[in-house]
Amino acid sequence: MIFHYKNTPIHYETFGSGPAIILLHGFLESSTMWKPLIPQLSKNNFVITIDFPGHGKSGVLAEIHTMELMAEVVNEILQHLQISTATFIGHSMGGYVTLAFAEMFLEKIEKIILLNSTTENDDAEKKAIRERSVKILDSVPEAFISMAISNLFTEESKQQNTSEIEKLKAEANTFPVAGIQANIKGMKDRQDRKQVLKNFKKGKFLIAGLHDTIVPYAASKEITENTNTTLITFNSGHMAVIENLSELKVVLNKILN
Question: Tens digits of per-residue pLDDT, 156-211?
């Protein structure tokens, strides 16, 4: 389905019925990442998946896709669907948007589940890396996408999930370069939202990978301790939906039921 926000097409899909769950994908991903979880989650819930602007089948909204802008898009779709509250599951960048949404529309969130994500903003080194990434995309987008997606997995996991990794790369190569760059710029400029998570008084969970090189496990552990958030640990990298699918299904079933 297509929802138009500021004359820009935003692709979303819905499944099942019951309490609402919204699934927000990460950088260089799309709503297709959630397909393995949809059958289970939609048995007793109304599940909504969205392609963020510049990713999947959604158009490019602006030169910079801030986390706040993407949270506004999510809110508009919830209003369109007449959903007053939902549980949010956000992977990586989707977690950043979840926290921005929590800051802007707190009363609309039932539970927060951050999946391989963080409350922290970028430090100076990471900001510089993102700036270089924007420039690299101007000249060799396929090489950047291949490297960025490979880096989401541990070395062992790369060997075990070759076909899945190639699918991710193939799909990401269909995204407009301007959209990828807009999302990089938005992540670079995002705020630290540790206090937002700390102030959220309902159920909140952070699912972390012991070997995650994108979101270091030590940082995840510290965040959960400082925000009174439940930490769930997998022996994996940054892609729990692929690397720990069966474990993730069990964990989500316990959290949501």
Answer: 899 999 999 999 999 999 999 999 999 999 999 999 999 999 999 999 999 999 99
Q: How many CB atoms lie within 10 A of CB 2?
A: 11
Task: State how far Cα 167 lies from the chain centre.
Answer: 18
How distant, in Å, are the alpha carbons of 76, 105, 250, 252 from that of 246?
33, 32, 7, 10
Alpha carbons 227 and 197: distance in angstroms, whole number: 6
Whether pLDDT at 155 is above 90: no
Q: Which amino acid is at 237?
A: G
Query: What is the residue-wise DSSP string for 209-241?
Result: ETT-SSS-HHHHHHHHHHHT-EEEEESS-S-HH
Find, among 155, 173, 148, 12, the residue nearest to 92 by Cα: 148
Helix crossing, 162-172 with 141-150: angle to 10°? 140
Q: Where are the domains of the chain?
A: 2-256
pTM: 0.97
| Terminal C-alpha separation, the chain | 28
What is the rounded distance in angstroms from the CA atom of residue 235 to the CA atom of residue 150? 18
- Hey, which bits of the chain come out as E strands? 2-5, 8-15, 20-24, 46-50, 86-91, 109-115, 203-209, 230-234
CA atoms within 13 A on the CB side of 183: 29
Strand partners, 24: 50, 90
Query: φ and ψ at 119, to 5 degrees?
Result: -90, -15
Place of tokens 């989650």: 41
The Cα 198–Cα 140 span in angstroms is 40
> Fold for domain 2-256?
Rossmann fold (3.40.50)
